Amino acid sequence: MFTRHANSLEINVSDVRSPEELHELLYQAFEFPEYYGRNWDAFDECMRNVVAPRAIRVSGLMNMRFRMPKEAKLFVACLQDFVAKDTEHRIPLHVD
Predict the structure, then answer these.
(1) Which residue of 5, 36, 60, 95 has the smallest Cβ count within 10 Å?
(2) Does the domain made of 2-95 have the CATH classification 3.30.370.10?
(3) pTM, 2 dp
(4) How far apart are CA 48 and CA 85, in angstroms?
């Protein structure tokens, strides 16, 4: 589930049960183009081409880490990488 506000994007991954579900959620939340390949390379590529929110909050990560530790680790790493590289906007990232 995700909630888009005027200045932020909140993504709740607590109920995500598979990599496919996670990438579908990310596709919708970040409004990726139709060609999004639903993998981490595609996520990285598409993140460079979206209008970034002013803040990103991810909740429910502990639940996802329990079910899918590898995907949770990759997800956080990709988001951190994106935020670190976007020095123009300085997007705050909150992971709960």
Answers:
(1) 5
(2) yes
(3) 0.91
(4) 10
